[in-house]
Specification:
This protein is of the alpha/beta class. The protein has a single domain, classed as FAD/NAD(P)-binding domain (3-Layer(bba) Sandwich), CATH 3.50.50. It has six helices and 14 strands. Strands 3, 4, 7, 8, 9, 10, 11 and 12 form an eight-stranded mixed beta sheet that branches. Strands 5-2-1-6-14-13 form a six-stranded mixed beta sheet, covered by helices on one side. Strand 13 and strand 14 form a beta hairpin. The longest helix is centred in the N-terminal third of the chain and has 18 residues. It is globular, with a radius of gyration of 19 Å.
Length: about 300
């Protein structure tokens, strides 16, 4: 058994903590932002490998996470549901590189006006406030801790102490990694008007993700922007694009506006360096890759080797 300090309390950090606790380690999670304050709390959180590479590792992590989330959807109180939906394109496309990570891609029954091609599949949709609370409760149930802590450097590590760095954008400062950068995502939450399917047009990106009490409508992908303030003009553009995909949104009451900064990197960094294990740079796919990455992190803490990181 090792003492493990997980830095970061978003979806990746909490999921890593759970798998490490289940493996018998003593685990403490420390973070500047508690789970409901994290970037993860803003996510529309539909399973989709967005802004995450390399393809082979992401497909493997994504497939495993899809499997785990499918199981969690059968449990009450997790905030996970399996929801059918369609990705649409204005021109014909080949199937996506991650297609093997989901059980099946099917031809859509119908496409919105102006779209020529697409594919449908059932995806896990995760209501993040519920799910993050469930993850934290699971950590604490396993005798782990979650504590607010402002760090200027990573905690000391070595010997029986391992630090797992799930700091997302914080890795720019904590490990001096300039290759991880923000990609600003703005979303709206609108009232639930009977929408039961998700829609995605990655060209926008435009997405419509139905939840039990609202619908998350997005979005933007502004790499390099640190601006946390929602833009009314951008919100109007997002909603107009979304109505073109899902006309039932026309006239839906806007409940709130949110902005999150995705931690984008040329490649997701999952590797061990002595008593330090890195797990950050998941782009817009933190939920999508979380369980697969957490299991690899657990193997790394146990001393098993993995593929090297070639991007930084």
């Amino acid at each position: 058994m090792k003492r493990v300090i997980v830095v970061g309390a978003g979806v990746v950090g909490l999921t890593c903590a759970i798998r490490l606790l289940e493996a018998g380690h003593r685990v403490d999670v420390v973070a500047r932002d508690l789970p409901l304050e994290s970037t993860s709390a803003v996510a529309a959180a539909i399973w989709y490998p967005y802004r995450a590479l390399p393809q082979d590792r992401v497909t493997r992590w994504g497939a495993r996470t899809y499997e785990v989330l499918t199981g969690l959807a059968a449990q009450a109180g997790t905030g996970v549901r399996m929801v059918p939906g369609t990705e649409v394109h204005r021109t014909p496309r080949v199937h996506p590189w991650w297609a093997s990570a989901v059980p099946d891609l099917a031809d859509p029954e119908a496409l919105p006006d102006g779209y020529a091609h697409g594919w449908s599949f059932v995806a896990p949709v995760v209501e993040m406030p519920v799910y993050l609370a469930w993850l934290r409760a699971r950590v604490e149930e396993l005798d782990g801790t979650v504590t607010r802590l402002h760090l200027r450097d990573l905690p000391a590590h070595g010997g029986d102490v391992v630090v797992v760095n799930c700091s997302g954008l914080g890795a720019r400062m904590l490990v001096g990694d300039p290759t991880v950068a923000p990609a600003r995502g703005q979303v709206l939450h609108v009232e639930q008007v009977g929408i039961e399917r998700w829609w995605l047009d990655s060209a926008g990106p435009t997405y419509v993700v139905p939840r039990s009490g609202d619908v998350v409508v997005g979005g933007t992908d502004e790499e390099g922007s640190w601006d946390p303030a929602p833009s009314p003009r951008t919100a109007a553009q997002i909603l107009a694009r979304a109505v073109a995909v899902e006309p039932a949104l026309a006239g839906a009451r806007v409940l709130r506006h949110r902005v999150g900064l995705r931690p984008v990197r040329p490649a997701v960094r999952v590797e061990r360096d002595g008593g330090l294990v890195h797990c950050y740079g998941h782009g817009g796919a933190g939920v999508t890759l979380s369980w697969g990455c957490a299991e690899e992190v657990t193997a790394l803490v146990a001393g098993e080797a993995t593929e090297p990181d070639h991007h930084g």
